[in-house]
Write a structure and sequence with these properties.
By secondary structure, the chain is α/β, with parallel strands linked by helices. The chain is about 50% helix and about 10% strand. The chain is globular, with a radius of gyration of 22 Å.
Length: about 425
Amino acid sequence: MAEQDNNTIVINPQHVTDAEIIVGIPSYNEADCIAYPTDVASRGLLQYFPEKRSVIINVDNHSTDKTRDVFLSTPTRVPKIYISTPAGVRGKGNNFRNLFEAAVELNAKSIIVVDADLKSITPSWIQYLGEPLMGRFDFVAPIYARHKYDGSITNHIAYPMLRALFGIRVRQPIGGDFGFSGKLARAFLSEKLWNDNVAHFGIDIWMTTIAIARRFNICQAFLGSPKIHNPKDPAKDLGPMFIQVISTLFDLMYDFEYLWKDEYSSRPSNIYGFGLGIEEKPPAVEVNTDALFEGFHKGFKKYDKLWEEIIPTPELIEIRKAAKIEDKNKFYYPTELWARILFNFAVAYRNGQIDRTRLVEAMIPFYHSRVLSFYNKTINAGIKEAEEYLENFNRVFENEKYYLIDRWDATRKTLGSKLFR
């Protein structure tokens, strides 16, 4: 065992000093799950990159459930390194920062990251996420089938916002499974925006946005099998993740305003793979529609006055009309309104006149209402039909971008020198 100056714990039993390819597995208390992706990663590296020097690195948050022991004791022919943040230091982003630093220290050319709770990973995933990095690409995002109600923050906020802002389609910007080059790892370490949100669940949207905004070569990799992990009900289980992801996105909008205001349409990114057929179906995600409906209505009682400071009167009138719908199964409001709600929250966040954590918390009832609207529109739709609906949904965001820019510029003129970060 070695211990770095900042008390980061490093266990490197095979004394690895350089590697061409790294597979990183971020974790916190994943003793029950981590052996499987570790084994599959090893088999994938040996099958598809046998000539490359490789290593598997578990970047952990000082788990207390023997994640470290399970990882290190999993039989693999590929060497392993365990790196942990100090005791008490949490955050997926902090794990990634340790991975970036390890990649630079080991002079790695390609880094692949997979979630520790994956149940559907195959050796081919290592190939599909890794091979594009051997060519001209620096960032590889995944494409896989997901249940229509899995990944709701992705479907309704992260993807449509990034696509409308920067004009490139990256379908799973916070998917958790990525590939990136050693060059991009160095770039990540040099970025100025690194705060508590990025150090936690904001890391995925941060990485994807940095790769796009800094003009690195980006592609998507079709992984061939659905993502099966521990799914979450979109009506609950938000925890701090929602605030951290949205806050990071809004911070990046401020930093890269000079780029996104000049983009008015989107284009497909390169897609790696063969369009493999999918026979397996992702597991169902149960949605508590009562909780979604109730969450929206409770929001009025808690945030109505605050919403009046954020959202202009025409949109507030439409929101209040939606609130009068008494049957949860008939609840719906148009995508144009949802886009304008998000855009107004982004503008208010930039303006800094309202406590930003409270502001993002005040978005959650609207998120609940959006997911319920989508549920009611797609209850009888299959994955393909739901995806087609979401494609049209994204085009609405692109069409409404003029509204974002008008609001962004109008409040800047109003606030003048009072505008602050």
